[in-house]
Amino acid sequence: MNAIATHSRYRLEGKKVEKKIPQPKLLTYEDYVKLTPPDSGNYELLNGQIYFLASPKPSHQRISIRLSYFLAACVIANNLGEIFPAPMDVIFTEHDTFQPDLLFISKERLSIIGENKIEGSPDLLIEILSPSNDNSEISYKKHIYESTGVKEYWLINVEKQTLTL
């Protein structure tokens, strides 16, 4: 990300004048909640900016429901923790709230589950790519996941039929 200059200097009739350049406000989770429609589930807060998420395609949902089914069956049968499908807000940093397609939280870490959101990094995140996902978004999210302690991250590319761990 490029740094933006916060000051500029001008010379006006032999005087040095310093002018502050306004900086864009980085939104927080509280801003996100106020600015997005309630229960819409179609937004994320990415690096302090709100992004609309297009509805997923049937192929995306097919993979999501099948993975949810198999993972939930294993997690429930073995009392391992909780599985959540999207939309579910997960707060990673003050300026980053994402809605991974699937997430797992181990029973040892269930305390991060809040009433309306997940307040910390899940143990496993699964993202199913859509055509609207671009490389910079994927890279940024991967950086956030790694820097906030996500233990495992799966990236599924429907078009290429690949799974990246």
Describe this protein's structure.
This protein has helices spanning 29-35, 58-77, 135-147; strands at 7-12, 15-20, 43-46, 49-52, 81-85, 90-93, 96-98, 102-106, 124-129, 152-157, 162-164. The longest helix has 20 residues, at 58-77. The two termini are 25 Å apart. With 165 residues, it is of the alpha+beta class. It has a single domain, classed as tt1808, chain A. Strands 5-8-9-10-11 form a five-stranded mixed sheet, with helices on one face. It is built from three helices and eleven strands, in the order ββαββαβββββαββ.
Low-confidence stretches: 1-8
Give me the CATH fold name.
tt1808, chain A
The CATH class label is: Alpha Beta
- What is the radius of gyration? 20 Å
DSSP, total strands? 11
The gross shape turns out to be: globular
Helix tally equals 3
The termini sit apart by 25 Å
Helix content: 10-25%
Can you list the strand order of the major beta sheet?
A: 5-8-9-10-11
Mean pLDDT score: 89
Order of helices and strands: EEHEEHEEEEEHEE
Q: Describe the biggest sheet? A: 5 strands, mixed
Amount of beta strand: 25-35%
Structural class: alpha+beta
Task: Indicate how many domains the architecture comprises.
Answer: 1
CATH superfamily: tt1808, chain A
CATH architecture identity: Alpha-Beta Complex
